Amino acid sequence: MTQTGSAPVRRLSRTSGGAGGWGSAQRLIPGLGLVPFALYVLIFLLIPTVLALTTGFFNRSGAFTWDNIAALVDPTVLKTFGNSLWISLLTAALGALVGAIVCYALLSFSPTSRLRASVEAVSSVLAQFGGVMLAFAFIATIGVQGLLTVLLKDVFGVALYPGEIWLYQMPGLILPYLYFQIPLMVLTFMPALSGLKPAWTEANATLGGSSWTFWRRVGIPVLAPAFAGGFLLLFANSFSAYATAAALISQGSQIVPLQIRTALISETVLGRENLAGALALGMIVIMIVLMLAYSALQARTARWQK
Amino acid sequence: MSTVKTLGSARRVRASHSLAPRRPFATTVLVVIGLLFALPLIAMVEFSLRTTTGHGLEHWTGLFDPANEFRYRPLFGGLVESLTLALIAIAIVILMLLPTTLLVRLRFPKLVRVLEFITVIPIAIPAIALVVGLAPVFGASIRIINSGTVVLGLIYGILVLPFAARALDASIRAVDVPTLVEAARSLGASWPRVFVRILLPVLRRGIVAASFISIAVVLGEYTIASLLNRQNLQVAIVSISRSDPYVAVIFSLLALAFVTVLLAVIGRIATPKRKVFDV
């Protein structure tokens, strides 16, 4: 019934809609329908975003100050930003590399194979598997009493922690972060890699190119934007991650998210009242730069994926 | 003679220069990485089965032992809180995001890009940075709404926007919504009737996917709840882990299994069949 009715109805309503001075009233009433969502987004997204960006410029009594922003170049704060950038760079580089290798290995299986479908399904679960649960997974694996720690000690006589327990320090974040970075890379890079057309290898072979020529002249140039885009996404992902670090590292604030925690929980950090605002501003600025670069790369990637 | 040579080398080239790596190499890579990824999950299961004497189900059964009720009450309280928060977030998705998305598509096509932009903001702004601005908003709204759960649920509605919007968008694009709406309207259906009888059934795949991804996001949320001092599931898991790491690991496993099921269902329904009128 619905199917047969649609064509004439559309014509009918078009003509009635176009008639005369109804325009403004017809727009006004549906426009009211946008109000609830607009108000909701204003209160719970836009105002908090603006507050997060601006509280750094004010002291507790509401007077304007450069004091907190100046703290962004304080050696302690610079060091946490350095740590955050370093861990993001490392886990994004390793994650992108290993993720790309997994994608490459998957190429030798048919796109419709059960294996590829299940690797993609598992990746989408693990890419979401962040937070405190991930911290417990690694405490159970390489914690002091973890399965791997005990196995290495009992079977091979190898001590995972000859010195201090690095799982609860900055280096302890690397493995858990890779656990969600690699699957995320698989999810983002696989479409680009599957987009390489067999016709291109054939063209390369017909023209006498070797496999090396193909990758150097065609494969790598075509995939580079997608790889770089995936790397940026991974970088942003670990740069903004908080829960895993919060659950693993209970003392100190080695990375920016943990320093925001400290600044929010204790009244003053480094003798400043609204340091959390300045730190949030710093984080958001870096994230916006990453996201702009990512969307620019996306546009280049899309060119080859038609 | 030269032609023969060229042909021969071309054939050899094509055979050895397929894009795909050799099967044994590919299998080795996947098996090694697969095992490394399985290790933490196996470790969690093994850890949860440890007892003072060896291995057993002690910690699993202890969870439902009435004797431990007092000890685990915060944990189950956190679970109920997180499920309530998920329901509020889903309500926002269905009652606010969905009608707004449809209204924008039907009447204000110029605003489609604006809506897309708004829905990706929560990805670009890390939760740990957003919470700095959310804290004063939370404080102010709790004075009006008088329920921390409801206010946090409203905040979670924002967090799930990017995921829910994408899921809804995919199912809206698969259907000719304007035609369906005009057909129903011209046959005399009221707007609420169009929404309930036409749009909800036709878009149900997208709605279910959006709801499930919202549940997955809300059940895993720790950052905002912990810094606003709300006891949700993740906050409760962290606080019990200090006295009882086994239960923390068990709950992490259960949450992971649950999210896996949710995402598997989404994967099943996300591939839209061409049958639109199978209502």
Please sum up the structure shown.
Chain A: InterPro entries: MetI-like (IPR000515), MetI-like_sf (IPR035906). The complex is a heterodimer of chains A (306) and B (279). With 306 residues, chain A is an all-alpha fold.
Descriptive notes:
- The complex is a heterodimer of chains A (306) and B (279).
- With 306 residues, chain A is mainly alpha-helical.
- Chain A has helices at 2-18, 23-33, 35-54, 67-71, 75-106, 114-128, 131-142, 147-156, 174-194, 198-206, 211-240, 243-248, 256-265, 275-302.
- The longest helix of chain A is centred in the N-terminal third of the chain and has 32 residues, at 75-106.
- Chain A is globular.
- Chain B folds into two domains: 22-56; 69-270, MetI-like fold (Orthogonal Bundle), CATH 1.10.3720.10.
- The model of chain B is unreliable at 1-17 and 273-279 (pLDDT under 50).
- Classes of the chains: A mainly alpha (306), B mainly alpha (279).
- Chain A: The chain crosses the membrane at residues 37-58, 85-109, 129-152, 172-193, 214-236, 275-297.
Reconstruct the topology from this structure.
The complex is a heterodimer of chains A (306) and B (279).
Chain A: H1 2-18, H2 23-33, H3 35-54, H4 67-71, H5 75-106, H6 114-128, H7 131-142, H8 147-156, H9 174-194, H10 198-206, H11 211-240, H12 243-248, H13 256-265, H14 275-302
Helix pairs in contact in A: 3-14, 5-9, 5-11, 6-9, 9-11, 10-11, 11-14, 13-14
Chain B: H1 2-16, H2 23-48, H3 58-62, H4 69-107, H5 112-124, H6 127-145, H7 148-159, H8 161-173, H9 177-186, H10 191-202, H11 204-219, H12 223-227, H13 233-241, H14 245-270
**Which two chains form the greatest contact, residue counts included?**
A-B, 94 and 94 residues
Tell me about the biggest sheet of chain B?
none
Rounded mean pLDDT of chain A is 85
- Total domains of chain A: 2
Q: What sort of overall outline of chain B do the alpha carbons produce when their principal axes are compared?
A: globular
